[in-house]
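Structure ticket #2291
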Amino acid sequence: MQHFEIRPIPEVPLETVPPEEFELVRAALHNPQFQFRTITGIHQETEVPLEHVAAVLDNSELARVSVMRDKKGDTIYAPKEQKKTVRERVATILYILAH
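Resolution: structure written out below.
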C-alpha cells in the first residue's frame, strides 16, 4: 500500500503571479464547461503552479468560494459574478441549521 504525504499549497503574494498566468487562471475559472472549479483542476488545465492558482483565486476579486466541496472535500470556486445555485443555497441553509 502506498502512502501519500499531503502538503499544503505554499502561500505567495498575488503580486508575484505573472500577468499571463493570472489571465490563464481567469480564463479557466470562466470556462463554460464547468460551473465550479478547484485549484487542482485549474492547475491541471493551465499548468500554472498550484501556489499561483491559489493566490489568484483566494486573493483577487475574480472568484468566490462556494460553501460546497467537491467529492474529495476540496474547496470549489466560482466566478464572483456567478449567482449561487439552488444547491449552494440549500447547502448554506443545512450548514446553518447544523451549527
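Closing remark: The chain has one domain: 14-98.
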